[in-house]
Amino acid sequence: MPFATRAGQPQPLGATVNPSGVNFSLFSQNATQVDLLLFASPLAPAPSQVITIQQPTMFYWHVQVDGLQANTAYAFRVHGPSSPSDLTNFGHRFNPNKVLIDPYSRGNIDTLWDAAPSKDNSDNVAQSMRSMVIDDSGYDWEGDTPPNTPLESTVVYELHVRGFTESPSSNVANPGTFSGLIEKLPYIKSLGVTAIELMPVFDFDSKTPKRINPTTGQGLNNYWGYDPICFFAPHAEYCVSPMTSSHVNEFRDLVKAAHKAGLEVILDVVFNHTGEDDQNGPVISFKGIDNSVFYFLQHLDQTYYRGDLTGCPNAIRCNHPAVTKMLKESLSYWVTDMRVDGFRFDLGAVLTLGEDARELEYPPIVWAINLDERFANIKVIVEPFGGDQGDVLGKFPDIRSATWNFQFKNVIRRFVRGDSGLISQVASRLCGSSDIFKQPDDGPLNGISYLACHDGFTLNDVVSYNTKHNEANFEDSGDTDNISNNYGVEGPTADPTINAIRERQIRNFLAVLFLSQGVPMLLGGDECRRTQQGNNNPYIQDNPISWFDWTLPVTEKDLVAFTAGMIDFRKRHPTLSRQTFFTGQVIADGLQDIAFHGCNLFEPGFNDPNSRVLAITIADPTGVEHIHAILNMEFTPLPFQLPQLPGRQWFRFVDTVLPTPNTIAAPEAEVAITTPSYFTSARSVVILVSKLSQV
Predict the structure, then answer these.
(1) pTM surpassing 0.90?
(2) What would be the CATH architecture of the domain defined by 5-132?
């Protein structure tokens, strides 16, 4: 017997469970009719009931279905203008033959999904995705309390949910899932990081090949997830039991477990484009609901999309009022109902674009994040890129955001590689890049300091490959823009000399990263030499190229310990995570807050085109432990003068050239230095601490 229906309510959007049944509401400004499809099961080839909604309230198409239960599969068909001129002149792509998931769905099922029928004019109901009615009330948070880690104390660890445990070496019960990641939280916690930054967990199409192997015909599917199809639904593939509508609670279990471990959860969100691609892509949701509202279209012929704004096949109109509402409500949902602790905005420059695709002074979506009290305590991280309009590094209008400082990565990679003439730039990057973050209220915490991320080489590959090796992607290989060095052999080698320099360079990178101002971010696996075999773009590599190899934390236990030791050192020395830039003011024991040196004190080679060395002294305002760091990237050993402080003595905490266990010292076990200078090996980093003399 069909379910009884009545008008229902226009708000909230999506499928909302209530005591009488379920209220459905869908936004479409230009539709003429909306059909709600109810399925007896997520795998049913056809709907069991079709409910036609002919009269909206404003642009909200809504209906109450009495007696309907949670865990019901549903979808929409949307009617509207569909002539060739409607497409060319207005960008309308209405087609009631296409079955569409709900943009506000809390979970979707793609078991039957086949993209091919979504691209033609056929009825694709038997091959369509389905949304699930999910009752997200009643979850037991067990007294969950977010860590609320201060930004100055934050250390970010970037990882991919599936890739972190999909390898058989992970030995988790449910590999590649939120549940599997929960089992590995103790390892992450042991490193000393404070937040996990998850590559996209919003639902995306992971079934449709992005590329085809021309030899075997095998498809390479989307692995990374930077092509969302819904901004409220956790990706079904990361769930153990998605057919039972477990999406929401399985993700909540991860957040709750992370918080219990003292870890914050930051989501990498993609609000700049979707997985519906361009005019040749599939119709999954937004295209069929109201294409011209959701996407930037070419002005002269609105058949085509403004991919130039993102470098992707399409671009979302983030600051259209309806889209701003959706994105703001998405953020609110993940903060309020899912209790995440922050967001990293992919291609963040797109968030600043107005209806004319030009930068706005006050972009609504950005200022919603700034002004809404629900977001007051979250962390806002921005990737500063965005298509052809350039980057917004140091210019993003959210005054409290921390932007991925790609200039830090580029300069430090060049410096550690051995490029000369960079000393003034290195000094600026170590100090938080005040030359970049120049707005009135900016400080070091407006920058995320990182040396590797999901985009590009891992840290191991930075020291193992001269060029990219993307043959597995069926892409051109052999470019030289990765700022890397293989030190004599391309890729893995048994040569002990080459392996020694590679291992030392990784320690050098990690030492510099955690000595630097800004919010440090570590790519998951860089602490144990995870490799992508020279692939700098493995977005379609759902295989060991991308997966975390859990034998590495064992075989590379010394590097793991070094990483944890550097993070602990940073935590014990708050002067490494300042909220304000250095000023040069004398603050303790006659020391400036920071001083720069070369081999001789106070003689940095800022204007020396041949210099590869820098030493810095960082004063502790409390006078407990001052820091002196020596960065010698010359190819020969050199002596470095040490500041002489009456009543104090220097002790060695790190020397990256020394073998284990002497590479890094435990707290209070540092080695005393009795000479006025320190003879520093080639390509090495030394960290000293000044303590009160015991005599």
Answers:
(1) yes
(2) Sandwich (2.60)
